[in-house]
Design a protein that fits this description.
By secondary structure, this protein is an alpha+beta fold. The chain contains 15 helices and 16 strands. β12, α3 (225-244) and β13 (252-257) form a beta-alpha-beta unit.
Length: 482
């Protein structure tokens, strides 16, 4: 039997407001544990929440950017569950009347545009952070658990897709494109490594052609786009094996083990009724007038799909523009700055989407964590155009720049990679090679071009690979014609 995967993605985005969602505590990352707390975010008796207006405006921005309908009135609910990092024993969230609903996001995968439907975008507060000490950092084997409530109450936006993704590659592309949207709005730094953007995936399978959804499994702990795709690939294979063995899929939450490349069962999956949602009695409804909504719409910056279209107008191929816009954070800004300095758009895009992106993926780094600047890119491209670097040497120079060894000029000099373009010096090497290989030259003169590549290689070897191959070819052809 052929099985069809059905995937829905839930993405949590921490907003970078100065203060928390319902109190005035700082919403900073990296502060000492339990220093940004107050009676409201600790749920002490008598403390009452007050909504953060900036956070509400930003969720409306996100909704508009995702083509959502903005609800004229929405309400907060209490989502009741018991966990150590939840000081209230409930989370202020939204249930049946979210701020934004019925949107979509178009993503490009293998040259095709896929539309991912978005069910809802709602506002809530984050929980605290648990640190499991000992036993590999897992709760089941830890010796103790420490709690940091600095994150409790930080404004959190949840973006929930419809269950209409059928390919892990599409899920990855969607997550990357969504991060690009959030970054372009400036409402979050969307750093996966700091947890300011996190995603969970709901996965089920069903026989091809069926319309009824199967039992879903929620997968957690995917902290990179690569992890998301790998976890979905694994879970689809696992569920297929279970079904083909004649067994039943249990609705549960599973933990993705990045090192082992497998998911592990954590707990049975709750249904919405288990959370006993009811309207938050301490907060009034959010009312969004037509006028306020349109004022927010006017503040929207250039969105990723618009930016991509502009890059295509520069002459870039669509898939290259897509990598710039939805690839590693900061690539597009670096591209814009380098082009603004006068560098060729095609060359800059080539080095950013090729070697630079490969380097970032290999080292699991962001562009900000490297030493590469727009000025460096311009200098590298100029050295190539001026034939001071070969394409192979330029790759080595770029790696050196990314590693922090200096400017392209400094790296090229230090590694002795400057290409020889002096015709006189190259002629001397060519003549020496021809003198040592007279038979090869004679064959070329009689029309047999097979030794030509050999002679070019000998000249490149004699110059330690630093001679300009184009000039070597030209001189050899002149000598053969004499």
């Amino acid at each position: 039997m052929n099985w069809e995967p059905v995937i829905g993605i839930e993405v949590h985005v921490e907003l970078k407001t100065d203060s928390k969602m319902f109190c005035g505590c700082r919403a900073d990352f990296g502060s000492d544990p339990n220093t940004n707390i107050c009676p409201v975010c600790l749920a002490l008796p008598g403390a009452l929440p007050v909504p953060n207006e900036q956070a509400i405006e930003w969720i409306i921005q996100i909704g508009l950017a995702l083509n959502c309908t903005i609800s004229p009135e929405s309400i907060f609910h209490r989502k009741n569950y018991f966990y150590a990092d939840l000081p209230k024993n409930y989370q202020i969230s939204q249930f049946d009347i979210p701020v934004c609903s019925s949107g979509y996001l178009d993503v490009e995968v293998d040259g095709e545009t896929v539309r991912v439907a978005i069910n809802r975008v709602h506002q809530e507060e984050d929980t605290g952070k648990s640190l499991h000490v000992g036993g590999g950092g897992r709760i089941h084997s830890a010796e103790a658990t420490l709690l940091d409530f600095n994150r409790a109450g930080v404004p959190l936006v949840e973006v929930v897709t419809e269950p209409d993704i059928h390919n892990p590659a599409v899920a990855r592309a969607y997550a990357q494109q969504l991060r690009s949207v959030v970054e372009s709005l400036g409402v979050s730094d969307a750093k996966l490594e700091e947890g300011s953007m996190r995603f969970d995936a709901n996965v089920s399978i069903r026989p091809e052609g069926d319309t009824e959804l199967g039992a879903k499994v929620e997968v957690k702990n995917m902290n990179s786009f690569r992890s998301l795709e790998r976890a979905l690939d694994y879970e689809i294979i696992r569920q297929t094996g279970v079904r083909e063995a004649g067994e039943r899929i249990h609705q549960e939450t599973r933990h993705w083990d990045e090192e082992a490349g497998v998911t592990h069962s954590m707990r049975s999956k709750e249904g919405s009724s288990d959370y006993r949602y009811f309207a938050e009695p301490d907060l009034v409804p959010i009312v969004v007038s037509d006028e306020w909504r349109e004022q927010i719409r006017l503040k929207l910056p250039e969105l990723p799909h618009e930016r991509q279209a502009r890059y295509v107008d520069f002459g870039l191929e669509s898939h290259v523009a897509s990598v710039l816009v939805s690839g590693a954070a900061g690539l597009a800004d670096l591209f814009e700055e380098a082009v603004g300095r006068g560098s060729d758009p095609g060359q800059v895009a080539k080095w950013l989407t090729g070697e630079t992106t490969a380097y970032l993926n290999k080292h699991e780094m962001t562009i900000e964590q490297t030493s590469l600047t727009a000025a460096h890119l311009g200098e590298l491209v100029s050295m190539l155009v001026d034939s001071r670097l070969s394409a192979t040497a330029a790759k080595e120079v770029l790696i050196g720049v990314l590693d922090g060894e200096g400017t392209p000029e400094q790296v090229a000099v230090a590694r002795d990679l400057i290409q020889v373009s002096d015709s006189g010096a190259i002629e001397e090497e060519v003549d020496a090679v021809l003198e040592a290989n007279p038979d090869a030259l004679e064959k070329i003169r009689t029309g047999d071009m097979k030794p030509f590549g050999f002679l070019v290689g000998q000249v490149m070897r004699a110059t330690s690979g630093k001679a300009d191959p184009k000039i070597v070819n030209e001189i050899l052809r002149k000598r053969a014609a004499q």
